[in-house]
C-alpha cells in the first residue's frame, strides 16, 4: 500500500522502474488545488518508471515538465497559456486522455512540442481531428519564433462545415513605387481588415503575391514579391483564405517537419500556410485532399530550403475545365526549394515557383486523370527571369511549363533580365486532343526588351495523342514581345517527338538541295528553331553532294554566309564566287554561345 504525504515531508521514493502515484506526493484530484509540484515530484521519484494520474481532476497552475512516462486515468486542468511537456509521452493519445477534447489536446501537445529544448516529434497516431475553424499555430504555441527542429507526424485532420472557414475580403486603394521599394504598398485607404497571408490581386499583380507584413500605424504593407505592372495609385483586392494549419502568426519558423499528415478539407478550407520567414521546412508523405483554394501557400520567405516530398495533392475543382480552375497546389518565394516525388492532380496551377535555385524532380502533374479532350495548361509557372531551376524526371499529363518575369517590377533599375536559367531535362509530356495553340514549354514576357538566356530543353519525350500538335514550344506575346535576336545559350536537343508536326532543335543540322546553279543560296531553317528564333550562327557547311558549276566542274570552295536575312530575318544566305548547284549539310543555331 502506497504511503501518502507531500514530497517535502515524505522520505519515501519509488524504486527504479516502478509506478509513482501523484497522490503519494500531495496531489488532490478536486480540480482546485495546484498539483504542479506533486506531479513533478512523482516524476523525479519514479526514476525511469511511470507516473500514474489516478481518477479525479488535477489542476496544474504553472508550466510543468515531466521526464518520466505517464499513465492517465483521470483528467488534467491547466490554463491555455501554460505548458505541459510530457517528454516520454509526446503524442496526441496521451494528451487527449489528459484533457479530453481532441482539438484542445492537439493544441496543448503542439505547444509542448515547441517548448521542448531539443529536437522532438508529436505523433498524432491514428487520431482523427474535426476542425470547425483554422488552427492558429502560433497562438496555440504561445510564441512567434521557433528555431528548434520539431516534427508533427501522422493523424487525420478534417474540415467540418463552419462559418469560420469563410474567406476574408478587403478592397483598398494604395500607392506603389517600384523605384522606392518594389515590395511595398503605402497610403492604404483601409488597412484594418487586411491580414498577413492574404492573396493580393489587381492590375499588374503577378501570380502568388501575398501580404507578408503589415504596419497598421504607417498604413503600409510588405509584399512577398514585386509587382510587374502596377500603377502608382490603384485598387487592390486582399483575399485571405482560411487554412487548416496556419503558421502565419510566426514571424519566423525554422526546421518544422510535417510527416504523414492526412488533410481532408472537403472544399471548405485550404491546407497549410507557412510562416512569413524561416528555413528548412519539410512536408513529407502527406495527403492534402480537396483544398478550397491552396494546398500549401507561402506568404513570404518561410519557404527557403523548403522540401515537399512524396505528397499527394488533389484539387477540389478537378472536375471543372482546366482553363476555369482557380486552385493552386503550391507557391514558393524563397530560394532552394526541392519539390520531389509528389502527385498533384487537377489544380488550375500546380506550382508557382518564385525565387531561385530550385529542383523539381520525379513528380506527376496530372491535369486530367482520364484521357479526355483538354488543352494543356501551365502547371509549373516560373515567375523570376533567372530562376536557376532544374525540372527533371517529371510526368506532365496535359500540363505545360510557363517561363515568365512577372515578379520583376516594371521600370525598376535592374537592367534587362532574360528569361531562362532553367534546365528542363528527362521529362515526359503528354497531350490529348491538342490544338494549334497547344505547347508544352511557353515563354511569356511581362517586361520590355526580354530575351532568352541559358535555357536547356534536353532529353524529354513530347507526345500528342488524338491529334497532331503543331509545335511543343511557343512565345505568348500578349503582354510584351520577346527579342529572340539576342538569345544566348539555348539548347533544344535529344528530345523525342510523337504526334508533333514540327520538331524543334537547336543547334540544328539540315540538308539543303540547290537544284539549279546560283551564286547565292537562300536557306530557310526557321521551322526547326525554338521560339521563332532567328539564325545567329553557322558553325559548319559541309557538302553532302559535289558542288558543281554550270559546266559540271566540281568546285572546292567554302561559301560566305550572310545572316540573318529574309523578310522575317530567319534565313541564311550562302554566297559563292560563281553560280553552282549541289547539296550541303549546314549546322545553325538561334543563339550565341557564352
Describe the fold and architecture.
- This protein is mainly β and 594 residues long.
- The strands form 10 sheets. An 11-stranded parallel beta sheet has the order 9-13-23-27-31-34-37-40-43-46-49, covered by helices on one side. The protein has an 11-stranded parallel beta sheet with strand order 10-14-24-28-32-35-38-41-44-47-50, with no helix packed on it.
- The protein is elongated.
- Residues 1-16 have low confidence and may be disordered.
Annotation keywords:
54 strands, 11-stranded parallel β-sheet, 594 residues, mainly beta
Layout of strands and helices, then pairs:
Elements (H helix, E strand, L loop, with lengths): L18 E3 L8 E5 L1 H11 L3 E4 L3 E4 L3 E3 L2 E4 L2 E4 L5 E3 L5 H8 L2 H14 L4 E4 L4 E4 L3 E2 H5 L3 E2 L3 E4 L2 E4 L8 E9 L7 E3 L12 E3 L9 E5 L4 E4 L9 E8 L2 E4 L5 E2 L2 E4 L2 E3 L5 E4 L3 E3 L2 E3 L2 E3 L4 E4 L3 E4 L2 E3 L2 E3 L13 E5 L5 E3 L2 E3 L3 E5 L5 E3 L2 E3 L10 E6 L3 E7 L2 E3 L1 E6 L14 E7 L2 E5 L8 E4 L7 E7 L2 E5 L7 E3 L12 E6 L2 E3 L9 E16 L13 E13 L10 E6 L5 E19 L5
Parallel strand pairs: 1-3, 2-4, 3-6, 4-7, 5-8, 9-13, 10-14, 11-21, 12-22, 13-23, 14-24, 21-25, 23-27, 24-28, 25-29, 26-30, 27-31, 28-32, 29-33, 31-34, 32-35, 33-36, 34-37, 35-38, 36-39, 37-40, 38-41, 39-42, 40-43, 41-44, 42-45, 43-46, 44-47, 45-48, 46-49, 47-50
Antiparallel strand pairs: 15-16, 15-20, 16-19, 17-20, 18-19, 51-54, 52-54, 53-54
Helix pairs in contact: 2-3
Amino acid at each position: 500500500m502506497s504511503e501518502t504525504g507531500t514530497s517535502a515531508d515524505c522520505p519515501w521514493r519509488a524504486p527504479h522502474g516502478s509506478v509513482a502515484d501523484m497522490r503519494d506526493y500531495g496531489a488532490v484530484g478536486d480540480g482546485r488545488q495546484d498539483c504542479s509540484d506533486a506531479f513533478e515530484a512523482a516524476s523525479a521519484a519514479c526514476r525511469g518508471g511511470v507516473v500514474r494520474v489516478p481518477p479525479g481532476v488535477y489542476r496544474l497552475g504553472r508550466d510543468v515538465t515531466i521526464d518520466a512516462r505517464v499513465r492517465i486515468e483521470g483528467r488534467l486542468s491547466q490554463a491555455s497559456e501554460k505548458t505541459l511537456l510530457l517528454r516520454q509521452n509526446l503524442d496526441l493519445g496521451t494528451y487527449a486522455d489528459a484533457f479530453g477534447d481532441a482539438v484542445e489536446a492537439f493544441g496543448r501537445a503542439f505547444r509542448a512540442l515547441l517548448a521542448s529544448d531539443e529536437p522532438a516529434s508529436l505523433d498524432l497516431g491514428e487520431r482523427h481531428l474535426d476542425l470547425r475553424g483554422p488552427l492558429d499555430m502560433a497562438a496555440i504555441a504561445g510564441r512567434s519564433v521557433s528555431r528548434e527542429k520539431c516534427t508533427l507526424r501522422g493523424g487525420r485532420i478534417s474540415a467540418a462545415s463552419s462559418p469560420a472557414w469563410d474567406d476574408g475580403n478587403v478592397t483598398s486603394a494604395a500607392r506603389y513605387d517600384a523605384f522606392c521599394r518594389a515590395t511595398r504598398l503605402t497610403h492604404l485607404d483601409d488597412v484594418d481588415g487586411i491580414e498577413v497571408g492574404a492573396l493580393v490581386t489587381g492590375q499588374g499583380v503577378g501570380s502568388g503575391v501575398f501580404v507578408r507584413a503589415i504596419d497598421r500605424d504607417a498604413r503600409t504593407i510588405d509584399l512577398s514579391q514585386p509587382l510587374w505592372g502596377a500603377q502608382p495609385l490603384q485598387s487592390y483586392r486582399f483575399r485571405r483564405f482560411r487554412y487548416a494549419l496556419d503558421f502565419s502568426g510566426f514571424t519566423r519558423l525554422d526546421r518544422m517537419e510535417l510527416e504523414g499528415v492526412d488533410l481532408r478539407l472537403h472544399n471548405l478550407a485550404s491546407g497549410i500556410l507557412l510562416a512569413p520567414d524561416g528555413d528548412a521546412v519539410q512536408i513529407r508523405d502527406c495527403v492534402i485532399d480537396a483544398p478550397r483554394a491552396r494546398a500549401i501557400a507561402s506568404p513570404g520567405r518561410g519557404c527557403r530550403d523548403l522540401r515537399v516530398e512524396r505528397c499527394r495533392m488533389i484539387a477540389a475543382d478537378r472536375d471543372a475545365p482546366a482553363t476555369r480552375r482557380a486552385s493552386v497546389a503550391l507557391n514558393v518565394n524563397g530560394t532552394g526549394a526541392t519539390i520531389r516525388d509528389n502527385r498533384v492532380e487537377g489544380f488550375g496551377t500546380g506550382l508557382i515557383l518564385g525565387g531561385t535555385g530550385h529542383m523539381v524532380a520525379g513528380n506527376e502533374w496530372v491535369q486530367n486523370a482520364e484521357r479526355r479532350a483538354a488543352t494543356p495548361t501551365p502547371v509549373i509557372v516560373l515567375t523570376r527571369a533567372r530562376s536557376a531551376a532544374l525540372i527533371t524526371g517529371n510526368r506532365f499529363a496535359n500540363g505545360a511549363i510557363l517561363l515568365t518575369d512577372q515578379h520583376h517590377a516594371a521600370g525598376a533599375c535592374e537592367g534587362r533580365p532574360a528569361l531562362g536559367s532553367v534546365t528542363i531535362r528527362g521529362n515526359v509530356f503528354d497531350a490529348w486532343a491538342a490544338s494549334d495553340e497547344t505547347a508544352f514549354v511557353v515563354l511569356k514576357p511581362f517586361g520590355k526588351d526580354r530575351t532568352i538566356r541559358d535555357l536547356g530543353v534536353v532529353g524529354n519525350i513530347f507526345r500528342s495523342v488524338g491529334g497532331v500538335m503543331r509545335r511543343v514550344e511557343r512565345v505568348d506575346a500578349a503582354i510584351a514581345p520577346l527579342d529572340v535576336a539576342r538569345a544566348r545559350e539555348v539548347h533544344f536537343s535529344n528530345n523525342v517527338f510523337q504526334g508533333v508536326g514540327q520538331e524543334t532543335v537547336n543547334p540544328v543540322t539540315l540538308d539543303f538541295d540547290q537544284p539549279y546553279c546560283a551564286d547565292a543560296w537562300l536557306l530557310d531553317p526557321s521551322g526547326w528553331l525554338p521560339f521563332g528564333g532567328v539564325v545567329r550562327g553557322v558553325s559548319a557547311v559541309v557538302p553532302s553532294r559535289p558542288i558543281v558549276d554550270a559546266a559540271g566542274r566540281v568546285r572546292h570552295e567554302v561559301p560566305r554566309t550572310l545572316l540573318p536575312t529574309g523578310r522575317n530575318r530567319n534565313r541564311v544566305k550562302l554566297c559563292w564566287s560563281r553560280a553552282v548547284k549541289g547539296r550541303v549539310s549546314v549546322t545553325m543555331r538561334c543563339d550565341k554561345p557564352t
